[in-house]
Structures are given as C-alpha cells and as structure tokens.
Fold this protein.
Amino acid sequence: MNLELVILRHGEAGRRSTSVGNNRGRGLTASGREKMEDMANSVKRLKLTIDKIATSPLARARETSEIVAKVLKKQGDLEVWDELKPEAATADLYRRLSKLKRESSILLVGHEPYLTGMINELISGGKKSRILLKKGGMAKVTIDSLEPKPSDELRWLLTPRQIKRMS
C-alpha cells in the first residue's frame, strides 16, 4: 500500500477547562500559533511531500492545520475528520485511510494520547512503548497494509526543536 502518514500534534493551547465541552473549543495560544508557524516554515524548507491534510475538528487542531495548510499552500487539500477526535476509534480512522489513493502522503493533525496510541498500534500491534509526541512534534509512519492487521514502520519521530534545526 505504501501510504505515508505524517502525524502532527497540535500546538500549545489555552488552559484546560474542567468542562469537557469547553475543552473542545480551546484554541491555540499566541505563542502556540507563532511556534506552529515556525514549524510549518521548517517543514516547507524540508520539502516534505504532503498530498492531503486531515485534522481533528477540535479548535486547537483545526488552527494548527490551517497554519500548516497556509504555509504549504495546501488550503484546498485540508479536510476535517471526526476520526481524529481524541475519543475516536482508530479502527474508524484505518477504514478511512484504506480508501485513500495508494502512494500518497497524508498529514494527520490531532491530539494526545490518541496519536501515540495510534502510532503504537500501527508499529507494534498495540504493545506498550514509550513514544512521546510533544506539542508541535511530528512522526512519519509508512503503511504497507491496513488489513487484516496494520503493517507499518515508524520512519522518524521529531520534536519541534529538531524539525527547526533540520531546516
């Protein structure tokens, strides 16, 4: 299949509320927006191929993806996927991914612990590992197949600082 997933955790968001509903609308801080713009410019300089951007509908992920889409000139390739919500089932995400064109590269923007749980599931069959995806951090996973079980390889895992230094 060779579908490439570039996985991005949203940038720094405002303070967490005790109400679940309020956390859904929690957007990026000014610092979070600035750092994500820097990170997006670094990604642009690295010349990563991105065919589509899929984001969680939550405000902080949506804002992150909009910043990246603008810098990469991919606004028309940005889609909101409920499958990237923090409480979503990864099986639903895999079904959606399996319908995409082979040999494409998708940027997924979402949340913790969903993203590292997904990475663990993809590369180790769900066994516990100690992967940490920092805010604004990225990982790249190459998917050979999603059925009957995911068969994948973690290509890299980078902090925002590492991404900036590479560009």
